[in-house]
Amino acid sequence: QVQLVESGGGVVQPGRSLRLACVASGFIFSDYGMHWVRQAPGKGLQWVGVISFDGRNKYYGDSVKGRFSISRDTSKNTVYLEMTSLRVEDTAIYFCAREDRQGLVSWLDPWGQGTLVMVSS
Amino acid sequence: QSVMKQPPSVSGAPGRRVTISCTGGSSNIGAGFDVHWYQQFPGTAPKLLIFANNNRPSSVPDRFSGSTSGTSASLVITGLQADDEADYYCQSYDSSLSAVVFGGGTKVTVL
Predict the structure, then answer these.
(1) Within its chain, how far is the Cα of B7 from the centroid?
(2) Cis peptide preceding B61, ω within 30 of 0
(3) Which pLDDT tens digit goes with each residue over A39-56?
(4) Which residue of B has its CA nearest to A39?
(5) Contact state of A109 with B44 under an 8 Å Cβ cutoff
(6) Would you tell me how many other CB atoms lie within 10 Å of the CB of residue B44?
(7) What is the pLDDT of residues B10-24, one digit of tens each?
(8) Residue A28: CB partners within 8 Å, gap ≥ 6?
(9) Do B44 and A113 lie within an 8 Å CB cutoff?
(10) Residue A95 is nearest to which of B45, B99, B101, comparing CB atoms?
(11) Are A62 and B45 in contact (CB < 8 Å)?
(12) A–B interface: beta-carbon pairs under 8 A
């Protein structure tokens, strides 16, 4: 079945870097764009960014632009989120999600279980 | 602050109908970008509930329905059940922000 499994979360000091990974299975990874979405403790969902199916196009939310970078490795069925210059406000559960699509319309399905990133000194 | 506004909470008795609103603007829902809805139980990942305004994945019961009108969207739950207690989020695309946007989320409580 289609599955996404995130890893790489943990506790990190402000200003440091961290790389998250999301391993996909059960579908043709190279056919789909992949998103990262985060959720701060007790808060709502916030879009982080997306990478296109072929890795050529990447877009980011304003709060992470210039600090976070998304990449993908088709040979490993994995999408990565490289986070630099981390701030306390980046503390959140980070979810990866597959971009499902019909024509020009796209949505997120399924989602991984998430990995917790805590930025604290 | 979320670009799309949802009521923080709604509640209803078992068997009743509840409606969750999602109010956007001219650069997202009003511009014709589709709305999608997700259901999230505490401690779990969001799950797709409605896609492309009013379409249900095959696993979602027909008690859940979606609609859009102007700059707003709505999620309706009929025949409310105890296991519908969850957080619900709307999602669309905003052309001014060039970003995927979510509503702030609505907690549904079954009385």
Answers:
(1) 10
(2) no
(3) 999 999 999 999 999 999
(4) B45
(5) no
(6) 12
(7) 999 999 999 999 999
(8) none
(9) yes
(10) B45
(11) no
(12) 58
